[in-house]
Amino acid sequence: MQWNRLVGTFRISLKSDKVWPNDKLNHKNYLLDLSVAFNSDYRRVIKSDSFRRLQDKTQVFPLERNDFVRTRLTHSLEVAMHTRDLLIGVISKLNKKGIKIDELNESFRLLETAALIHDIGNPPFGHFGEEAIRIWFSKKGELLPCWSSFTEQQKEDFLRFEGNAQTIRLLTKLHNDNGSSETGMNLTASTLDAVIKYTAGADQVDKKDLLMKKVGYFYSEEKVFKNIKFVTGTTGNRHPLVFLLEAADDIAYTFSDIEDAYNYGLYSYRKLKSFIDEKTGTNRFLVNDGSEAASIQDFLRETQKKVYQSASKIFVDHYDEIMSGTFHEEIINEECDEVKCFHALKEFSYEYIFQTKTILDQEVLGFNIINRLLDEFVPVVLKYDKEPMNKYEERLFNNFPRSAEELYKRETESCSEIDKDYYRLKMAVDFVCNMTDGYAKKLHDTLFN
Prior knowledge:
Keywords: Hydrolase. This is Deoxyguanosinetriphosphate triphosphohydrolase. Pfam families: HD (PF01966). Residues 72-254 form the HD domain. InterPro entries: dGTP_triP_hydro_central_sf, dGTP_triphosphohydrolase_C, dGTPase, dGTPase-like, HD/PDEase_dom, HD_domain. By secondary structure, this protein is an all-alpha fold. The protein has helices spanning 3-6, 30-46, 49-52, 72-96, 102-105, 108-117, 126-140, 152-159, 163-174, 189-193, 222-232, 240-264, 269-280, 292-317, 319-324, 337-352, 357-381, 391-397, 402-411, 417-433, 437-448. The chain is globular. Among the domains are: 3-122 and 164-232, Hypothetical protein af1432, CATH 1.10.3210.10; 240-281 and 289-352, putative deoxyguanosinetriphosphate triphosphohydrolase like domain (putative deoxyguanosinetriphosphate triphosphohydrolase fold).
């Protein structure tokens, strides 16, 4: 992989099959062009309604109204901050090894933008919202008359539904800028590729391979996915900047989940201290000099700083492997106390935060809302453009935005009837995914309570 293709200005057009890699030699003011392009991407994201919706989407606590709890929006802002710190560390360490990359110096805005959009396709109610969609189709997909005619990939798009793949769909198709765009946000291929964590289609998932362990793209976006990867020269590989984005994401949610849960009263200082000491085999973390709350803040801040340094070191140590596409590990994996502590915090979150009754009850509420919405809307969309709806179904369908019908017509032009059913189901899933937590609950209560 070459940086003059990895970091470039080209934008994917859905109206044309014509794609080509960026060529540094053809740009008289190449670095300035990069700056202009990535600043444009940043503005498009910040001004989008899809980005604003993240302020009412769950990070950990569904339907929470306390100000101190993170949302998808504040989480994404924190990830953007972390990507800068990681990139600064990487550039500094590469420079010390005599490796100077102009394009990497111009990638700060690119990575910030990637951080802001990395969760933009996720449904309401956090990761349990994704699970709710998977469960619905695993239980009821085979009952749909069109299901048996779908290809394996088309079925798995719903059975293995993934917010990462929905993000690419939203960015390249669903976002329509109040009707003025048919190419999504029309971001650069480099920015789009920087959020593609996985390279597998839904029928290719392999849990043992980092690049293939989750769905990277849906059948509906296979063509645009391949175009993005061709332009950046990453076909079959991860974009190198994805390693930094993934590390920033892990750092952001791991430390913020611990902080939010403590403020929420889900665990005690003593419980966290004893857990960390046992898992790391040292008592050097969480030293209480007076206030327990202050000790936790100091511990999180100092440990986070060390994890930054470790992650950037691992990236540089394995730079050649990353650039050749042979490095298939996370970069937060150094054998040191701080990284051991980091992984211990993940375990602690799962055991003492995500499994608490407070969160589980809210997840059940979110599941029931998504389940009922799909129960009602899927039969309706399967009639769209095929057979008459009754009055009740017409009223339900009126909740769909006009842009959903327009996208369906573009995607089904010259399609078989079976493929049309696939895109009809997409309309229902897209509709639910675009909802915020509050809107999903409000719509559910308005229609069905």
